[in-house]
Amino acid sequence: MNKSELGTLLLFLIVLILIISIFGIVIRKLLGVGRKKWFSYNHLNEKHKKLDWSVRLTFTGLLFISTFHTNYNDILGVYWYFETWFILIAFVITSESLRAIMEWKYAENKKDFVATLAEMLFMISVVFLTIVTGFFGLFNI
Q1: Cα gap 107→36, rounded to integer Å
Q2: Within 13 Å, how many C-alpha atoms sit on residue 114's CB side?
Q3: What is the pTM of this model?
Q4: Where are the domains of the chain?
Q5: Backbone angles phi, psi at 133, to 5 degrees
Q6: Rounded-to-integer distance, Cα 42 and Cα 76, Å
Q7: Cβ neighbours, 10 Å, residue 33
């Protein structure tokens, strides 16, 4: 990958993150729920904290197993469910679904879980569309 392709990729990723962030802000404003802080652990209670850390540790272990399997199985090939992109998408779905369930059960504002589900579905749709279209034709993948 040359420098111009790397620059294009970085710009594209920044635009995607910006679009997803703007969607989150708009949907939370429309539903009248508070914004989530970036890169923080907004656990609703101790049960949520324990479950969330269990999910994170499980997927970290899966990434290590996937990396080991990918590096040492050149002859057999790599199955799609060992690919890093699949594990990361599964992690986001699992983590955000757990958050939505906990918000549905324990949050003061019951619309929190609707916003979380909407953000998750939008993010998955954008990522899936990006992968299927080959980064909207920007790169030959």
Answers
A1: 13
A2: 10
A3: 0.83
A4: 3-34+43-132
A5: -90, 5
A6: 42
A7: 20
Q: Is 113 exposed, middle or buried (0-12, 13-18, 19+ CB in 10 A)?
A: buried
Q: What are the tokens at 135? A: 């980064």
Both structure tokens of 53: 């850390």
Token pair in block for residue 47:
């049960």
Which residue is it, tokens 């729920």? 33
Tokens for 131? Answer: 């992968």
User: What contacts 24+ positions apart, CB below 8 Å, involve 74-82?
Assistant: none
Distance CA 127, CA 54 (A): 25
Q: How far apart are CA 28 and CA 36, in angstroms?
A: 9
Average confidence (pLDDT) per 10 residues, the chain, 141 residues: 79 91 94 78 89 96 88 73 86 94 92 94 90 75 56
Cα–Cα distance, 111 to 140 (Å, whole number): 41
